[in-house]
Design goal:
By secondary structure, this protein is an alpha/beta fold. The longest helix has about 35 residues. It contains 28 helices and ten strands. The C terminus is likely disordered. Strands 3-2-1-4-8-6-9 form a seven-stranded mixed sheet. A three-stranded mixed sheet has the order 5-10-7. It starts with about 35 loop residues before the first helix and ends in a 23-residue tail after the last helix. Helices cover about 55% and strands about 5% of the residues.
Length: about 725
Amino acid sequence: MKRVRARPTEFPVSMPDQQFTAGRTDRRGRPRSQSWRKLFILAASLGLTGWATSEMFHVLSVNGLTLLEWVLLVIFTINISWVCYAFVNATIGLGAALHALRRRPDPPAYASIANARTVILFPTYNEDTEHVFATVLATARSLSGAPGNFECFILSDTNDPEIALREEAGFERLSRQAPADVAVRYRRRTINRHRKAGNVRDFVTRWGGRYDYMIVFDADSYMDRDAILSLVAGMEAAPQTGLIQTIPQLVGAESLFARCQQFAAALYGPVLGHGIAWWAQKEGNFWGHNAIIRIRALAEAAGLPEIPGRAPFGGHILSHDFVEAALLRRAGWSVEIRPEIAGSYEQGPPTIIDLVIRDRRWCQGNMQHMAVLLRTRGLSATSRFHLITGIFSYLASPFWLTFIVIGLFLSLQNSFMLPTYFGDSASLFPTWPVIDSERSLRLFVATMGILFAPKIYGLIYGLASAEWRRTVGVWRTTLGVLSELALSVLTAPNMMAAQTGAVISVLTGKDSGWSPQKRTEGGYTFAATMRHNLPATLLGIVLTGSAIAISPVFAAWLAPTTIGLILSAPLTWWTGQRRAGRAARRWGALVSPCEIETPESFAESKAALPVFRKLRPQWLASLLVDRNSQRRREFLVDPYWPLARYEVHEPLALARARAERAGSVYDYVNALSRAEKMALLNSCADLQTLSFRFMPMRRSPATRRERLASGTAIPALLRKPNERPPGQSEGSS
C-alpha cells in the first residue's frame, strides 16, 4: 500500500523569544488607525461612568459618607465602568452592523491567491479522533480545486497512548480518503512543552518556511470554503497585515445551555464584533483560533518568552493569543477583526460545568496578563486595553460579589445604628434621616437600561437582518431574546460565584493544569452536579438568611442574585440536558439560523464521520512483538526529540529499565505508566529493540493469571456485555 508522507521536508524558520523590555519597532509603512474613534469610545465610556458615579455619590451622601459607603462607591465605579464600556461598544456596534446589512457585499475575487501557500493547522490534545479527523477530511475536500495551494496539518499533543494509536489508525484512513491536490499531514510531539503555543511554535520553527500563511483551527472549529479563501485574499491584499481574526459563530448545540450560548453568539456577536472592529481598526485582537496569520510576522515578532517565576503567574503564557496580537502590533504589523467574513464556526461548552472548567484555565491565563502589562514595553495603548479587558472579564465577578457583601454590611449597620436627631449644636428642629428615593430609583432604572441594552440591540439587529427574518422569523427571534435573557439572569449568579472562586484559586497560587475540553453533552449525574454547585448554593443560602434577618425589603432586592445561587445545581443540571434543548426548539425558543440552514462546513464534517468509525488501532502489547506493524507505522512517528545534550527523558528511561525485569510482554505493558507507554510509541528504535527481547516469548504465552491481570486478553466468556479490551475500538476484531 502506498504511504503518504506524514510530514513534509522541514523548512525551518527562526522564532526567537521576544524581550519584554524591547521597545516599539518603527516599521516603514506602519498601518495607522483613526485615533478619534478610540478617543470617542474612551470619552463616552468615562462620561457615562462619571454620571453614574455622581448619581451614586448623591444617593449615598444624603447625611455624609461612612467608610463603608466610600468603599461601596469605589466598587460601584469599577463595576459600572465595565458596564458602560460594553454599552458604548454595543451602541456603536449596532450602527456598524446595520450599515453592513444595507451594504451589498463585493463579489469574491480569488484570482490574487493563486500562488499563496496556506496551511490549515489542527492542534489537538487528547481529543476525539473521529471528530477531529472528520473535520480535517471535510476541510481538505472543500478546498480541492480551489485557487491557491493548501495543506492540512494535524499537530498532535496527545499524551494518552490509546488515543495516540487511534490517531495513527485514523491518519492512515485519512490519507487514503483525502483529495490528491490538498495534502494532509500529521505530527505528534514527543515532548509536550508550552501547551498549544509551544505546539504551534514547534511547527513554525520546523516547517514554517514552506508556507506564507497559516489558518489556526481549534479541535471544534469549522470554516466554510469561502471563509478560508476570503481570509487568504485579505492577507494577499494587505502586505502589512499580520493577522486577521474572524468572529466565529457557535454551531451544533444540543443541550439547553449550549443552545442559549449559540443563540446569544449568533444574535449579539455581530453587534459586539462590529463595535470592536470599528474602534480597534488596525489594532484588533486574536482569540486563538479561526484566524489567519502571516507566518513570517509571527516568527519574527511573536515568539513568547516565559514569565519569570512559578505558575500560576509565572512560567509559559497560557492565554497566548492576546499577547501574540499585542507583540505583532508592537512590531508594526496590523491585527484586524473582520466581522463581515461569514462562515466561521466553533462548538461551545455543552454545560455550565464544562464552561466553568474551561474558564478556570482561561482565568489563570488572563491573570498572567497582569505580569505582561507590567513587564512589557512598547505595547500600544489599544493592545494594553485588550489585555485589561481580558483581566477584568474575570475580576468583574469578585467585584460584583464584594459590592453585594458591602451592601449587606451597610444594611446591617443601618439596622443597629441609632439615628442622631439632634447634633452637638443647638437646634430647634431635629435632623431626620433622609433617603433620596427618587434619585436612587432613577439610577437603578438607568443602570438596568445600560446593562440590558446590548440584548435589545441584538433584537433590533435580528429584526433588521433578512437572514434572521427568513430563517428564524420575527416571533421566534423575539421569543429567543426573552428566553436567553431569563436564562442569563438565572445563571449569571452561578457564574459570578464560579469565576470568583477561580480568581481566588489563582491568587492563592494554584495551577489549573492542562486537560482537554469536553465538547459533547452528557456525563454529569444530578449528584455530581450538586457537588459541583455546593459552594454557590451555600453562598446563596447565607446571603438570603442574612438579608432576611436585616430586612425583608433588602432580601427582595437581593433575590435576583440569591435565587440563581440557591437554584444553581438544578439549573445547571436542567440546562445541560438534551431533552430540555429539544423542548426549547419545539416551542420556538433559542432558534438560530445555523439550525435552519446547516453550515456547509459543519454538515460536511458530520458527513465524514462514518469514514472514521470502526477504526482498528494497534495494541501496544502486539506492537511490541510485531515487527511488520512497527515498520508500517514508522512513517507516522516524529523522530525529533527536543532534548539537550546528555538530557534524559525519564519516562523513556524508565520504560527501558522495566523491560529488564519483565517476565512477559503482558507483564511489561501492565507495569508501564501512561507516560512510559507514550515514550515507547514515540521511539521506533526502542520498540524494535524490545521486539527482539519479547518475540521469543511469544512461543511461551503468558499465564492466564498474567493475561487477566494486564487486562489485554480477557476471555470472551468472562467479559461483560459490550466490554472491549483496552485500546480496541468499536468494531475491531
